[in-house]
Amino acid sequence: MSIFSNFSREAKFLFKQxxxxxxxxxxxxxxxFAVYSGISEANHQQATIERLLEKEAIDRENVIxxxxxxxxxxxxTFHLTYSEPSAMAFAAMGQxxxxxxxxxxRMLALEGQIYETDAxxxxxxxxxxxxxxxxxxxxxPLFVILLLHDLRASERSAGRYDLLVVTAKNQHSLWLSRAxxxxxxxxxxxxxxxxxxxxxxxxxxxxxxxxxxxxxxxxLFWMVISLVFVTSKKAIKQSSAQxxxxxxxxxxxxxxxxxxxxxxxxxKMVTGPSGGEIMLTQRxxxxxxxxxxxxxxxxxxxKTHPQWQGKTTMDSPFFEWKWYYAFQQVGDQKASALATxxxxxxxxxxxxxxxxxxxxxxxxxxRILSAIATTDTQAALVYQQQIRQFHKSLREFYYPLMxxxxxxxxxxxxxxxxxxxxxxxxxxxxxxx
Amino acid sequence: MQKEVLIADSxxxxxNHQTVLDEVSxxxxxxxxxxxxxxxxxxxxxxxKTFLGTVSPHSGIAKVMGLNVTSEIxxxxxxxxxxxxxxxxxGHLTGVENIQYFLALAQVNCTDADIEQxxxxxxxxxxxxxKKMSFYSKGMRQKTAIAxxxxxxxxxLFLDEPTxxxxxxxxxxxNQLIANLATEGTTVFMVTHDxxxxxxxAHRIGLLDQGKIVGMFERGGQTNIxxxxxxxxxxxxxxx
Lengths: 433, 240
Ligand SMILES: Nc1ncnc2c1ncn2[C@@H]1O[C@H](COP(=O)(O)OP(=O)(O)OP(=O)(O)O)[C@@H](O)[C@H]1O
Ligand SMILES: [Mg+2]
Known about the structure:
CATH superfamily of the largest domain in chain B: P-loop containing nucleotide triphosphate hydrolases
Bound molecules: adenosine-5'-triphosphate, magnesium ion
Largest sheet of chain B: 6 strands, mixed
Oligomer: heterodimer
Shape of chain B: globular
Low-confidence stretches of chain B: none
Helix content of chain A: over 70%
Radius of gyration of chain B: 18 Å
Number of helices of chain A: 17
CATH class of the largest domain in chain B: Alpha Beta
Mean pLDDT of chain A: 91
Structural class of chain B: alpha/beta
C-alpha cells in the first residue's frame, strides 16, 4: 500500500481527537494575532512616515517663506529621512525594533543627528516582538515537541503499544506518518494566517514562497529531531515526561543558551564605539569651534573641500554661515573615524552572529526571515548610508550658494534636494502613469 | 503429529539479570489449541510476547511457522493475530472504527459486512458498535479485541487470557469459536490461569511455574484433559 494511504489512515484517525482541533485552533489564533499585530505595526510605521511627510511639506512652506538667506534656510529646514517597512516587514520586524527607521535631519553636523536616538548602543537582542518570525523561530519548536513527544510513550502508557507494534505492517512508517500529519497540520495552522497577511500586504510572491520554505525547513528540523529521539531505542523505557524534558533541554540549549552565549562571546570579541561616543565627539568638535580661530576650522575644512580654497574670507569676524557650516562639516570629519569603527563593529558582530546562528536553527530562522523582509542589520546600515548620502547632497546644494555668495531666491531654494527612496519614487512613478 | 507451527527450544528470558523464563521447550502443531497455565508472574505473558518479538530471548530459539523471532519478526507479525492481556483500544473511536483502524494498520482488507459478522460472532451487543470505546465495559472491550483478532484471518492466534472479563455465556461461545477455528486449521496459543477453561478447550496444557515447564497434559482422543489432575498439579505448585 502507498505512503498516501498511510497518511490518509492516520489523518482520519488523528483528527477524530477533539483536543487536537483545539490545539490547532489555538495555534491559528496565535499566528493570526502575530500577523495582525505585524501588519498594524507596519501600517503604523508607514502612516507615521506619511503624516510626518505631510506635516513637513506644510512646515517647509512656512519656514522658507520667512527666510532671507541660504544659511538660515538650511538651518531651519528639516528633512525627514525614513526607511519604509517592506511589504514583508509585517512577518518579521527584525532590527526595525532596534535601529531607528526615521530621522529628521538638518544640514548641521550629521553624525550627532544619526546617533541622537541611539545613545545606547543597540545590542544584538534575540527575543523580541511577538511577530510571525518569533512564533516560527521560538514557539514552533515547542509546538512540535508538544505534539510529538508522546507519540510512542502515550501508546505504551495506555497499554496499546504491543498490539500496535504487532499489528502494524511497518512500525516505523506508523510513527512517521503520524508525525508527518501532525507536523503538516501545524504548518497549515501557522501558515494560513501568514499567507492571508501576505495577500493583504501585497507582498511579492517570491518572498512569500521563500518564507514558507524557511518555515517548513525549520519545522522539518524539529520534526526530525523529535522523531529520531522519540522512536530511539534509548527512549523506549522512558515516560513521555522524560522524553519531553530531554527535547525541551535541546530547545533551551539552541534557543536560549546558544544566543546568550554567542552574544557574550561576540561582544567580547568585537568592541566598537557606542553611538553616544560618536555623538559626543562630534558635538564637542562643533562646540569648541566657536572659540577656536576661524583659520583652524578652514584648514580642516579645505582638506576635504579644496575647491573652496580662496573663498573662505569672512565679511564678519564673528559669524558667517559658510564658516558655521564649515565647522559643522569638520565636526563630522572628526567623528568620522569613530562612525566607521562603529559601522565596522556592527558588520563584524552581524557576521559573527550569522556564524553562531548555524548552531541554533531558531536563530538562523529568525535571521533568514529578517533578511527576506529586509528588516535585518544590513537593511538598517543601508538606511544609515542613505541618510549620509542625502545629507551630502544637501551640502552639495548649499555650499556653492554660500561660497559663491549667490543672490537669495526662493525659486532656487525650492529646488533643494528631497529625501526619497527608490521604492517611493517607483510607486510615485507608477501612480502617475 | 502434524507440522510444528510454534517451537520454543531452551528459551530463556531475563529482565534486569533476573531470569523469568528458564530453558523453556515445547512445540505446538498446526490446528492445535495449546494453553499455557500458571500462577501470577509465572512467565506466561513473557513466553507469548517472545513469539511476538516484543520481548527478546536471552538465549534459546523461538520460531513461528519456521520463522525465527530474532531475525524474521516482520514476516511473523504478518501471520499472527494477538489478543493482549488487558485490552485498551482507542477511547475516542467507536468499536467499529477501532477495528477498521487496526485492520488498516495491518493492511488487511475487510468489508463492513465482515466486521459486522465478526462482532456478531463474539456477541457484542449491536447498540454498542457505533459507540465510543471509552464507554465500553471490560467484557465489551474484550469482545471487540477478539473480533479484531478473528478478522485478521491469521493462521496463528496468540491469546493472553482471552476469557477474562467475559460472562459465562460469552465464555461458552468463545470456546466454541476457538474449537471451530482449530478444526479449520488455525493454531491457537493461549495463556490463562483458568484451569477449567483450559481443560475444556485445549488439546494440550503446559504448566509453567517460575519460568519452567513443570507439567504437560494432553487430551486423549475425544475426552477432555482431566481437570482434577491439572488442578492438583497447579495447586501443588501455587500453594503459599
Ligand atoms: N518488561 C518487564 N521488565 C521487567 N520485568 C518484567 C517485565 N515483564 C515481566 N516481568 C517480570 O517477569 C515475570 C513474569 O511476568 P509475566 O507477565 O510473564 O507473568 P504472567 O505469567 O503473565 O503473570 P500474570 O498471570 O499475572 O499475567 C514477573 O516477575 C514480572 O515481574
Ligand atoms: Mg500475564
